[in-house]
Structures are given as structure tokens and as C-alpha cells.
From TrEMBL:
InterPro entries: Anti-sigma_ant, STAS_dom, STAS_dom_sf. Belongs to the anti-sigma-factor antagonist family. SUPFAM superfamilies: SpoIIaa-like (SSF52091). This is Anti-sigma factor antagonist. One of its GO terms (molecular function) is anti-sigma factor antagonist activity. Residues 5-115 form the STAS domain.
């Protein structure tokens, strides 16, 4: 199992950015899910950006954590944005049929995806 590091910061425009680094798997997804849901419920930002630039691995549990964040954001009226998913992450979302839900294009050529 891998390691993941998450940091959360607020941008000048009020958006909250969650930077994720490492692997999203059984050993790390509870922390991501808790961070996403907790921050959304506590801060209720207009926009939450999940930066996936440095995610090197993501399995179905990682995808599930992103879906939980997406659903929580929708429930409270927050815009949920995936920023810079690697080709690997983008491919995982396409294979599972969730790319469209996250607003991903057919390839990972664009760097920011919004929902």
C-alpha cells in the first residue's frame, strides 16, 4: 500500500484547494475522504479544487473517495473541480465510466476539469 499527503489551502478568490500527492488506495483514502467531506461541510466553499498533479496511483477506493467528495459538494451547492489529473488518473476515470461525471474530455490534454 502507498502513502498520500494532502494539504488544504484557501485561494484569494475563496476557493479551497486540496493538493494530493502519492497513492490513493486502501491505506490512504480514508484520509482523503475525511479531508474532502470535512472541509466541504465545515467551510462550505463556493469552489473546491482537488489537485491531482502528483497522484502516482489510484485504485477504485481512490475513485470512490473522489465520488464521495463530488456528491457532498453537489449536496451543499459547491463546485467540485479536478485539477491536473495525470494520464493514469484520467484513464482510471475513463475506464470506470466516471470521466463524464467529472467533466473530463476524451483525453487528458486539458489540465483543469470542472463539474
Amino acid at each position: 500500500m502507498g502513502e498520500a499527503v494532502m494539504t488544504t489551502r484557501r485561494q484569494a478568490d475563496g476557493a479551497i484547494v486540496v493538493d494530493v500527492r502519492g497513492s490513493l488506495d486502501a491505506a490512504t483514502v480514508d484520509a482523503l475522504r475525511g479531508s474532502l467531506v470535512g472541509t466541504l461541510q465545515r467551510d462550505r466553499p463556493v469552489t473546491m479544487i482537488v489537485d491531482l498533479t502528483y497522484v502516482v496511483f489510484m485504485d477504485s477506493m481512490g475513485i470512490g473517495a473522489l465520488v464521495t467528495g463530488y456528491n457532498t459538494a453537489r449536496e451543499i451547492g459547491t463546485r467540485f473541480v479536478l485539477r491536473n489529473p495525470s494520464e493514469f488518473v484520467h484513464r482510471q476515470l475513463r475506464v470506470t465510466g466516471l470521466a463524464e461525471m467529472f467533466g473530463l474530455p476524451p483525453s487528458s490534454s486539458a489540465t483543469t476539469f470542472t463539474t
